[in-house]
Structures are given as structure tokens and as C-alpha cells.
Design goal:
CATH architecture of the largest domain: Up-down Bundle
Order of helices and strands: HHHHHHHHHHHHHHHEEEH
Radius of gyration: 35 Å
CATH topology of the largest domain: Rhopdopsin 7-helix transmembrane proteins
CATH class of the largest domain: Mainly Alpha
CATH superfamily of the largest domain: Rhodopsin 7-helix transmembrane proteins
Structural class: mainly alpha
Strand order of the largest sheet: 1-2-3
């Protein structure tokens, strides 16, 4: 404004004596300076608007893809295990329970976090639902890692103590372990959060004053206890279990290799000496230790035993990769969670994008497990393929069934089977053909008449 007043005459008399032309010039100068002051910052802001908009859209798209992948992938695991009898073993019941926990993480934890990102950090569901969200997030994340801990213990007994495994992992013990896994996280999530034990009094006051903000701020005591129960202690147990599994699997593999070599040498020895002395007399002359080695080698070279050992090692490798992926995804979050709580926000300030990143890297683990199953486990890969094919066939049959009532039916008696071809009258749908037995012709004719 000082620029405008400097251009105006200092004499008030002359100012009031301005004619219309001069007054319009001053008015145009005022408008030009005002527009220059207001439009220049907006033009700078518009130049920065497009990259930030692109990054926000990319971030929301990635979050939405993680949610959809977690829901559909874990649902595929559950359906595949229930549909295929070959996958109905004790370990896969833990896997199904883990998939259910990951689905609930996607429904409750991810969706609420996604809504906060969409609204720009505003919480729109109220004070009570903020506690519900935080409780469910802690609950299902803890349940996931406890499932993986149970899977590691199950694989340990299956590989290290294979003879005692049917006696140790019974159906009763399976139900007991799953009950503990699903009930114990409630003592760490719902009880402390709804009672207000998890945070500081200042944060509780701030939440009451600002109900549109939902931030999970914890005190040091809860941070140490919750991180230990949810991550550090089960993680150490899993690392120890899989180290023992790796050592035992390596020992069994070396033993199997030596047994196969011993069996080959024994067969070669019998063939060479059997030419002159006869196999019967040679077997009688062999000492007891050689007979023992032969029986051990024969048992080790049994195709059923060998295939079972290979299958156990593959399952252990797959589940080991799952645990490694879980630790890799959740380790950044729990490091940030403990360090930021112990040193305080004054010394360890975390930008909002860092908090969002560590949360969603942890969430990504819920969508990663089905991909690991499909890539590393052949049985799951075959079951996934069959399940997806069944879904596609069911979808195509449903589409054709909807169009079937208005479509003409043509029958062909060229063979023992009758092909019913359904084509829409407007030719918008593709041709749907099915092989129909002769006994089903009457049913299709009656449906066409109706």
C-alpha cells in the first residue's frame, strides 16, 4: 500500500481536484499493484500443486492396492485350504488362522488408516472409535506374529522330532494354541487402551479437546511391554526355532546323501561278488554291521521317506521365508515405536511421512504372505490355480445363466453328448457352450419353455 500512496499527490486539494482521467489512472495503478501482490504467490503455489497432487494420488493408490491384495490374497488362502483335502494338515490350519488375522488387519486397521490419509489427517469417526481402531490394530498385529510363532514351533517338532510329532501336535493341542493366540492379545490391546493405561495424561486431555485427531501416543512402560510381547520375544523364539530347524534339516540332508551313497556301494558290491560266490552265500557271510547299514540305507532310500523329508524341508523353507518377511516388514515400525517413545518427541521428532511409511510397510506383510505361498509352495500354487479356475468358470456360468432365458437353444446329436449353445439375441454376449448329458435335455427344454 505504501507504493500506491507514494504515487498519489501529497496535496489533498489537488487530490480532490483530480479529473476523471487522472483518477482512472490511479485506479488502474492500484489494481495492477494489487494483482501483482496477490497473483504472484498463487502462481508459485500452482507450480507446486501438480507434483504434490501426483504424489498424494500415488500414495493413496498404493495403499488401496495393498488393502485389496491383502483381502483377496488371504481369502484365496482360506478357500484353497478348505476346498483341497491335501492341504488339510495341522500346519495349514495355523496358516488359515493367520490368513484370517491378516484379513481383519486389512478390514479394520488398514481401512481406518486409509480414511485418515484421504481426509488429510482428520479423524471423522469420533472419540470412541479412535480407541477401537488402536485396539484392533494392536490386537490383530500381535495375533499375526503369535500365529507365526506357533507355526515355527509346529515345524520344529515336525522336522527335529518327526516320530513324536503325531503325539505332540494333537487336535486338542491345536485348539488350545489357537485359543491362546486369539485371546491373549486382548490383554495387551483392549484393556490398556480403553482403561487409559497406554498413554500419558497430557495426551488424554489433548484427545478430549481435539476429537478430530486420532494419534497413538504411548508412555514408556506400555511401549516396552507391548513391543516385547508383540514383537521382540516372539521374534527371538522364531529365530531360535528356525535356526534349530536349519541345523536339523542340514543334518538330515547329509545323512540322506550318505545313506544313498552307502546303498549304491552296497548294491555294487553285491553285484560284483554275486557273480562268483552267489548272492545267497554272500549275504550269509556278511557281518551284522553290514546288514544294519543295509537296512538303514534301504529305509533312507525309500521313496516315500525321501519325498516326505523333501516336503517337510520345503514347508520349513516356505514358512522360514514368511517369518523373515514378517520381521523385515515390522522391524522398522517397532524400532521407530520404541526409540521415539524412549527419547521423546523433542529429541526424536519423526515427520508424518516417516510414520505413514513404517505403518504401511508393516501392513504390507499381510498382503505378502499369499504371494510367498504361491511362489515357494507347489501344493499351494496348484490349489490357487484350481480355485481361480473354479471362480472363473462359476462367473462365466452365472453370466450365461442370466442370458440363457432369452436365448435360443440349439442341440447337436452328433455324439453321445449334447451341446447346448446359448447366444444372445443382440449378439452382445460371447457364445456359451456346455456338454450336457442326454438325461439333462428335458430339464433344459423345460427351463427354455418357462
Amino acid at each position: 500500500m505504501t507504493e500506491i500512496w507514494s504515487t498519489l499527490p501529497t496535496d489533498t486539494t489537488s487530490f480532490y481536484d483530480l479529473d476523471d482521467r487522472n483518477f482512472s489512472n490511479y485506479t488502474s495503478d492500484f489494481k495492477e499493484i494489487t494483482l501483482n501482490r496477490t497473483l504472484k504467490p498463487m502462481s508459485v503455489e500452482k507450480t507446486w500443486l501438480h507434483p504434490w497432487t501426483f504424489l498424494i494420488a500415488l500414495k493413496l493408490t498404493v495403499m488401496l492396492l495393498i488393502i485389496v491384495a491383502a483381502l483377496l490374497g488371504n481369502l484365496l488362502v482360506i478357500v484353497s485350504v478348505m476346498r483341497h483335502r491335501k492341504l488339510r494338515v495341522i500346519t495349514n490350519y495355523f496358516v488359515v488362522s493367520l490368513a484370517l488375522a491378516d484379513m481383519l488387519v486389512a478390514i479394520w486397521a488398514m481401512c481406518f488408516n486409509f480414511s485418515v490419509e484421504v481426509t488429510g489427517g482428520q479423524w471423522i469417526f469420533g472419540y470412541f472409535m479412535c480407541d477401537v481402531w488402536n485396539s484392533l490394530d494392536v490386537y490383530f498385529s500381535t495375533a499375526s506374529i503369535l500365529h507365526l510363532c506357533c507355526i515355527s514351533v509346529d515345524r520344529y517338532y515336525a522336522i527335529v522330532q518327526p516320530l513324536d510329532y503325531p503325539l505332540i501336535m494333537t487336535n486338542t493341542r491345536l485348539i488350545l494354541m489357537l485359543t491362546i493366540v486369539w485371546c491373549s492379545p486382548a490383554l495387551l490391546s483392549f484393556l490398556p487402551i480403553f482403561m487409559g493405561w497406554y498413554t500419558t495424561p497430557d495426551h488424554l486431555d489433548d484427545r478430549k479437546k481435539n476429537p478430530s485427531l486420532c494419534m497413538f501416543v504411548v508412555n514408556r512402560t506400555y511401549s516396552i511391554i507391548s513391543s516385547s510381547v508383540s514383537f521382540w520375544v516372539p521374534g527371538m523364539v522364531m529365530i531360535m526355532m528356525y535356526y534349530r530347524i536349519y541345523v536339523e534339516a542340514d543334518r538330515q540332508e547329509r545323512m540322506l546323501y550318505r545313506s544313498k551313497v552307502a546303498a549304491a556301494l552296497l548294491n555294487k558290491h553285491l553285484q560284483i561278488n554275486g557273480i562268483s560266490a552267489g548272492i545267497t552265500s554272500l549275504r550269509q557271510s556278511l557281518d551284522g554291521s553290514l546288514e544294519t547299514d543295509k537296512s538303514n540305507a534301504t529305509a533312507a532310500s525309500d521313496p516315500r521317506t525321501s519325498s516326505k523329508m523333501k516336503r517337510e524341508r520345503k514347508a520349513a523353507r516356505t514358512l522360514g521365508i514368511i517369518v523373515s518377511a514378517f520381521l523385515a516388514c515390522w522391524l522398522p515400525f517397532f524400532l521407530w515405536y520404541v526409540i521415539s517413545t524412549l527419547c521423546g518427541n523433542e529429541y526424536c521428532y519423526s515427520p508424518p511421512w516417516v510414520i505413514t511409511l513404517v505403518f504401511w510397510v508393516g501392513y504390507f506383510n499381510s498382503a505378502l504372505n499369499p504371494l510367498i505361498y504361491a511362489y515357494f509352495n507347489r501344493e499351494f500354487r496348484v490349489a490357487f490355480k484350481k480355485t481361480l479356475q473354479s471362480c472363473c468358470q462359476m462367473t462365466s456360468k452365472l453370466i450365461c445363466w442370466k442370458k440363457r432365458r432369452d436365448a435360443p437353444i440349439s442341440y447337436s446329436n452328433a455324439s453321445s453328448e449334447v451341446a447346448g449353445n446359448y447366444i444372445t439375441r443382440d449378439h452382445t454376449m460371447p457364445r456359451c457352450s456346455y456338454n450336457i448329458s442326454e438325461g439333462e435335455i428335458v430339464n433344459f427344454q423345460s427351463e427354455a419353455i418357462i
